[in-house]
C-alpha cells in the first residue's frame, strides 16, 4: 500500500465537528435537531413537504400535497405558481429591491452587478423578446451560452412565460447541440457571438450555424453580443438581442402555471448511446431546491454565494440559479477558467468579492492541489464561512486539503450527493449540525430515505458495498425522460422494483454514514461530468477507420476517472500515433472536448460474450492491472486474454 493510501485509510475514522462559531448561528445547530426533524419528515412526508411548500409563493394553493407515486410522481397537485416570480418579483416587495441578485465577472476582467429590481426588468424584457418571436407556453427553447448574466436571464425569461428551457453546455460540439435540439423539438435557440475560455473565443454562433444547417427545425436564433467577434447573421433567422429588446415592454406578466408544468429539460448521459432528456417540474422542483439551498448552505441574508458550476449542468440549474434566487440570495458567477490568466484566479475572486460560500467540485480542488499552495498563500480568504463539494466522490485527503488550506479549519464542508434526475441534493451534511467524515456525504436530507441494497433489493449490513437506491418519492424528482417512457421505467424502476435506482454503488458504515463509491453502470464520471461509454463508442465508430470500439473509465488522480478507448480497425487501416490523434480529435468534434479519450489502444478483437456484448469490465481490469481476474467463461474469444496482454 502506498503512502497516500495509508493516509487515506487513517482519514476514514476521522470525525470533524462543525466549528462552534458556525453552529451558533446555524439554522440547524445540533445533530439531535436534525434527527428529530428528519424523523418527522419521514414519518409524515405529506405534512412535512406541505409545510415546506408554504415558503414559496403560490398563485393558487395546491389541493393535494402529492399523488404518492414513485413513477410519474406529482407534487402540490392543482396548485399554480411561477418560478421566475418566486425568484424575482416576490423579493421586490420586501427590502431586497436593491439587494444584489447577481454579481458577474468575465474572464477578461469585466464585471457587472444586477440588483433584484434590475434582474427582474432584464428578465421581463427578454421574456417579451421571446414572446415577440412566437415563443409560448410549453415551447422548448435551447440556450447555448457562455456563463454570462444573459444566460441566467434567458432561463428565467423562459420560466416567466412557461417555455421549457433546454440548456446545452457551451463545451458541447455542434453535433451534440444538434442532437439535443432535435430531440427536444426546439425551434428557437438563444446564443451569443462567443464566450471567453483561457483567453480564446469559443465560437458558439458558428457552432449554432453548423447545427442549424443540418436540419430545418431551427427557425430562429437570438444572439447576445459578448466577444464582439464577427459572426454570420442570416436574414430572417438570426437576430441580435440588443436590437430586439428595443421597444419591447419593460414588464412581463408572469404566466400562471400548473405545479406540474415542465420547467426544463436537461440532457445527461446514460448507459444507452443517446443522452437522456431529463424533465423537471415547476412546483416540486422549486420547493425542494429552495429548501435544500437554505438548509444545506445555511443561507444568510448577507451571504455572497458562489457555486462554480456552469448552467449547462444540473448543479448550475438548481444551485446557481433556482435554489439561491428563490431564497433572495446574492449569487456570484464567473465566466472563465480557474487557471486564467494565472492559477490563483479563484482566490483572487474570493478575495475581491468577499465570497462567503464556495461550492465547487473535487476535480477543481485536485487541480488546486496540483498547482500548489503558493497560489493561495497571498490571498485573504477570510470572508469564507462554508465550503461545498459536488459531482464525484471526494478523496479524504483532498477533503482535508480543502478544509485546511481553503477553509482554514473554520469552514464546514458539505459533500453533497445527488444527480441530474434527483433535481436537488439528497445526501449531505447540514453544516451546523453534522459531524463530518472526510469522503462521506454523511446523512440523508429531510424527506429522503436512501438504502444500500443487494441485487434483490435486500438492505445490506454496514460495511457491505451495494446499490444505492431511494425509497419513496420526493418533490424535485424528475418527471420522466423526454419522449422515452420505456427507458424511464427500465433504467430507474425495473432492476429493483419499488425503489428509485441511482446507478451508484455505496455502503453505510456502523454509524449510518453513507459512502458513495461511484457509478456501477457504464457511465463514466470524468471531472464530475457524466459520459456514457456508448456515446464515446458511437463517436469512434463513426470514423471510417474504426470497426469496433469499447470505452472504459479508469481512476485518474485529477479527473476522478479518465477515458480509455479500445478499438479494432477496418481493413486497410494501420495503427499509428497520427491515427490516435485523429481519432481523439474526431471524438471532440462529435461530442465535445470533455469526451476526449486519454488513451486509445488498438486490438485485433474485442472481448465479447457469446451473445455479442462487449465485456468492458475485462478491458477495465486490463487497463488497471494488466491481467484478468474476473470470470471469463462466457467470453466468445478466449484468445483475447493472451492478445490483450501483448499491447
Ligand atoms: C453522479 C450524478 C448533481 C451533481 C452533479 C453531477 C456522482 C455526484 C457526488 C458526491 C460522490 C457524486 C454520482 C452521481 N456524484 N455528487 N458528492 N459524491 N459521487 O450530476 O451529472 O447527474 O451526475 O455524480 O455518481 O450518480 P450528474
UniProtKB/TrEMBL annotation:
It comes from the Bacteria. Pfam families: ACAS_N, AMP-binding, AMP-binding_C. Residues 34-87 form the Acetyl-coenzyme A synthetase N-terminal domain. Residues 535-613 form the AMP-binding enzyme C-terminal domain. The modification N6-acetyllysine is found at residue 613. ATP binds at residues 391-393, 415-420, 504, 519, 530. InterPro entries: Ac_CoA_lig, ACAS_N, AMP-bd_C, AMP-bd_C_sf, AMP-binding_CS, AMP-dep_synth/lig_dom, ANL_N_sf. PANTHER family: ACETYL-COENZYME A SYNTHETASE, ACETYL-COENZYME A SYNTHETASE 1. Catalyzes the conversion of acetate into acetyl-CoA (AcCoA), an essential intermediate at the junction of anabolic and catabolic pathways. AcsA undergoes a two-step reaction. In the first half reaction, AcsA combines acetate with ATP to form acetyl-adenylate (AcAMP) intermediate. In the second half reaction, it can then transfer the acetyl group from AcAMP to the sulfhydryl group of CoA, forming the product AcCoA. This is Acetyl-coenzyme A synthetase. It comes from Methylacidiphilum caldifontis.
Amino acid at each position: 500500500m502506498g503512502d497516500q493510501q495509508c493516509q487515506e485509510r487513517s482519514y476514514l475514522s476521522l470525525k470533524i465537528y462543525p466549528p462552534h462559531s458556525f453552529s451558533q448561528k446555524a439554522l440547524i445547530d445540533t445533530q439531535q435537531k436534525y434527527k428529530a426533524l428528519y424523523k418527522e419528515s419521514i414519518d409524515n412526508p405529506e405534512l412535512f413537504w406541505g409545510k415546506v411548500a408554504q415558503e414559496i409563493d403560490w398563485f393558487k394553493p395546491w389541493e393535494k400535497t402529492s399523488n404518492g407515486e414513485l413513477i410519474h410522481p406529482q407534487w402540490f397537485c392543482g396548485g399554480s405558481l411561477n418560478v421566475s416570480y418566486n425568484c424575482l418579483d416576490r423579493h421586490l416587495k420586501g427590502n431586497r429591491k436593491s439587494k444584489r441578485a447577481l454579481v458577474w465577472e468575465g474572464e477578461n476582467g469585466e464585471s457587472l452587478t444586477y440588483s433584484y429590481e434590475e434582474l427582474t426588468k432584464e428578465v421581463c424584457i427578454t421574456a417579451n423578446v421571446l414572446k415577440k418571436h412566437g415563443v409560448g407556453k410549453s415551447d422548448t427553447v435551447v440556450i447555448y451560452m457562455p456563463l454570462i448574466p444573459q444566460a441566467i436571464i434567458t432561463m428565467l425569461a423562459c420560466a416567466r412565460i412557461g417555455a421549457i428551457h433546454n440548456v446545452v453546455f457551451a463545451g458541447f460540439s455542434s453535433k451534440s447541440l444538434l442532437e439535443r435540439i432535435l430531440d427536444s423539438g426546439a425551434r428557437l435557440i438563444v446564443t451569443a457571438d462567443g464566450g471567453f475560455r483561457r483567453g480564446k473565443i469559443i465560437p458558439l454562433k458558428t457552432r449554432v450555424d453548423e447545427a442549424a444547417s443540418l436540419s430545418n427545425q431551427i427557425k430562429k436564433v437570438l444572439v447576445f453580443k459578448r466577444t464582439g467577434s464577427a459572426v454570420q447573421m442570416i436574414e430572417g433567422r438570426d437576430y441580435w438581442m440588443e436590437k430586439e429588446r428595443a421597444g419591447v415592454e419593460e414588464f412581463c406578466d408572469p404566466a400562471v402555471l400548473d405545479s406540474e408544468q415542465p420547467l426544463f429539460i436537461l440532457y445527461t448521459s446514460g448507459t444507452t448511446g443517446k443522452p437522456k432528456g431529463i424533465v423537471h417540474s415547476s412546483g416540486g422542483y422549486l420547493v425542494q431546491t429552495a429548501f435544500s439551498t437554505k438548509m444545506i448552505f445555511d443561507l444568510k441574508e448577507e451571504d455572497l454565494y458562489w457555486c462554480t458550476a456552469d448552467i449547462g449542468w444540473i448543479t448550475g440549474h438548481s444551485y446557481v440559479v433556482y435554489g439561491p434566487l428563490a431564497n433572495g440570495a446574492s449569487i456570484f458567477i464567473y465566466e472563465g477558467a480557474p487557471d486564467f490568466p494565472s492559477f490563483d484566479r479563484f482566490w483572487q475572486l474570493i478575495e475581491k468579492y468577499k465570497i462567503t460560500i464556495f461550492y465547487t467540485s473535487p476535480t477543481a480542488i485536485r487541480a488546486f492541489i496540483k498547482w500548489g499552495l503558493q497560489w493561495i498563500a497571498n490571498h485573504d480568504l477570510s470572508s469564507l464561512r462554508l465550503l461545498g463539494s459536488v459531482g464525484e466522490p471526494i478523496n479524504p485527503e483532498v477533503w482535508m486539503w480543502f478544509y485546511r488550506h481553503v477553509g482554514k479549519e473554520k469552514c464546514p464542508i458539505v459533500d453533497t450527493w445527488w444527480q441530474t434526475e434527483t433535481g436537488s441534493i439528497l445526501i449531505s451534511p447540514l453544516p451546523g449540525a453534522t459531524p463530518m467524515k472526510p469522503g462521506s456525504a454523511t446523512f440523508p436530507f429531510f424527506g429522503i430515505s436512501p438504502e444500500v441494497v443487494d441485487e434483490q433489493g435486500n438492505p445490506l449490513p454496514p460495511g457491505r458495498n451495494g446499490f444505492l437506491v431511494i425509497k419513496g418519492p420526493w418533490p424535485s424528482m424528475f418527471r420522466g425522460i423526454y419522449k422515452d417512457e420505456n427507458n424511464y421505467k427500465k433504467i430507474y424502476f425495473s432492476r429493483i422494483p419499488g425503489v428509485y435506482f441511482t446507478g451508484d454503488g455505496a455502503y453505510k458504515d456502523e454509524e449510518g454514514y453513507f459512502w458513495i463509491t461511484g457509478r456501477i453502470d457504464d457511465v463514466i464520471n470524468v471531472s464530475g461530468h457524466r459520459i456514457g461509454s456508448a456515446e464515446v463508442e458511437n463517436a469512434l465508430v463513426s470514423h471510417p477507420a474504426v470497426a469496433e470500439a469499447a470505452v472504459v473509465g479508469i481512476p485518474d488522480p485529477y479527473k476522478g476517472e479518465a477515458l480509455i478507448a479500445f478499438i479494432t480497425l477496418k481493413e486497410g487501416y494501420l495503427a499509428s500515433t497520427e491515427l490516435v490523434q485523429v481519432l481523439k480529435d474526431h471524438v471532440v468534434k462529435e461530442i465535445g472536448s470533455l469526451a476526449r479519450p486519454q488513451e486509445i489502444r488498438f486490438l485485433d478483437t474485442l472481448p465479447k460474450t457469446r451473445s455479442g456484448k462487449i465485456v468492458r469490465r475485462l478491458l477495465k481490469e486490463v487497463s488497471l492491472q494488466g491481467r484478468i481476474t474476473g470470470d471469463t467463461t462466457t467470453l466468445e474469444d478466449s484468445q483475447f486474454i493472451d492478445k490483450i496482454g501483448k499491447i
